[in-house]
Specification:
By secondary structure, this protein is of the alpha/beta class. It has a domain of about 170 residues: Decaprenyl diphosphate synthase-like (Undecaprenyl pyrophosphate synthetase), CATH 3.40.1180. It is built from 9 helices and 6 strands, in the order H-E-H-H-E-H-E-H-E-H-H-H-E-E-H. This is Isoprenyl transferase.
C-alpha cells in the first residue's frame, strides 16, 4: 500500500507539472453521476451512495481551487428527478440539504443556487436562499449548485423573464422581435453574468448532457470519465484538465 500510494503521488505530481497555467478552464461544470450504481457495487443502499457522492464535492472544489478555477457548476438534482415518488426523492433532498449547508458553513465558497426554486419544497427553497445570502460576500470560488435544474426549463424561464421585463417598459412584441438576439436571452439565464463553462465533466461512463446547461455549453469541451462519482480521484480530475489543455477550441468553426 505504501508503494502504491507513493506511485500515485508521483503520478499526480507529474500530471500537475504537465498542466499549463494559461490553459486552465475558468468555469468547470460537472455531472456527478453514478452514486446509486456505486452504492450497489459496494453492497450499500441508495442513501449510502448519495452520502458518498455528497462527501466528494468539497474535495472536488478544493482541487478546482488549487488550479485557479473561478466558477464550478455541480448538477445535483434535475427537474426530472423531482418527478420521482417521495420514497426516492426524500433521501436525496435530505443529503443535498446537508451538503449545501456544509458548503455554505465552511465560509470558503460563494454558493449560488441555479434552478426552478418554485418546483422545490418551500422549506428546501428557503434553505437554498439562506445558503446564498450568507455566502454572498465570500471572496472565493463561485459554486453554482444546480438543484431542480433543467436546461430547457432555464431557457423558458429566461424568455419569460425577458418578456416580463419588456412588458413593464411598454415594449410591444413587434418591437422586441426586431431587436431580440441571443445576448438578450443570456442576460436572463440563471448563470447571467458568469462565463460559460469551458469544460463539462461527466462521471460514470455515460455520454450525454441530460438537459444540463444546454445554452451555456454550446462551445464547451466535454470529458467523460468511467469512474462513478464517489470513486472520482484527483488524478481523474487532472486528466480531464490535461485533456482540455491540449484541445484546439474552435468555437463551432
Amino acid at each position: 500500500m505504501a508503494l502504491s500510494g507513493l506511485l500515485y503521488r508521483l503520478y499526480q505530481r507529474r500530471l500537475i507539472a504537465s498542466l499549463s497555467s494559461d490553459r486552465i478552464p475558468r468555469h468547470v461544470a460537472v455531472v456527478i453521476d453514478g452514486n446509486r450504481r456505486w452504492a450497489r457495487s459496494v453492497g450499500g443502499n441508495v442513501e449510502y451512495g448519495y452520502d458518498a457522492g455528497a462527501d466528494k464535492i468539497p474535495e472536488f472544489l478544493g482541487w478546482c481551487e488549487e488550479l485557479g478555477v473561478d466558477v464550478v457548476t455541480i448538477y445535483m438534482l434535475s427537474t426530472d428527478n423531482l418527478t420521482r415518488d417521495e420514497e426516492h426523492l426524500a433521501p436525496l433532498l435530505s443529503v443535498i440539504d446537508r451538503i449545501v449547508g456544509e458548503l455554505a458553513d465552511s465560509g470558503r465558497w460563494r454558493i449560488h443556487p441555479v434552478g426552478a426554486r418554485d418546483l422545490l419544497p418551500e422549506a428546501f427553497a428557503h434553505m437554498l436562499k439562506g445558503a446564498e445570502e450568507r455566502t454572498a460576500n465570500v471572496d472565493g470560488l463561485l459554486v453554482n449548485v444546480a438543484i431542480g435544474y433543467g436546461g430547457r426549463r432555464e431557457v423558458a424561464d429566461a424568455v419569460r423573464s425577458l418578456l416580463q421585463e419588456h412588458a413593464t417598459r411598454g415594449t410591444t412584441i413587434e418591437e422586441l422581435a426586431e431587436v431580440l438576439d441571443v445576448e438578450h436571452i443570456a442576460e436572463h439565464l440563471y448563470t447571467r453574468g458568469q462565463p460559460d463553462p469551458d469544460l463539462v465533466i461527466r462521471t460514470s461512463g455515460e455520454q450525454r448532457l441530460s438537459d444540463f446547461l444546454l445554452w451555456q455549453s454550446a462551445y464547451s469541451e466535454f470529458y467523460f470519465c468511467e469512474a462513478f462519482w464517489p470513486d472520482f480521484r484527483k488524478v481523474d480530475f487532472l486528466r480531464a484538465i490535461r485533456s482540455y489543455g491540449v484541445r484546439n477550441r474552435r468555437y463551432g468553426l
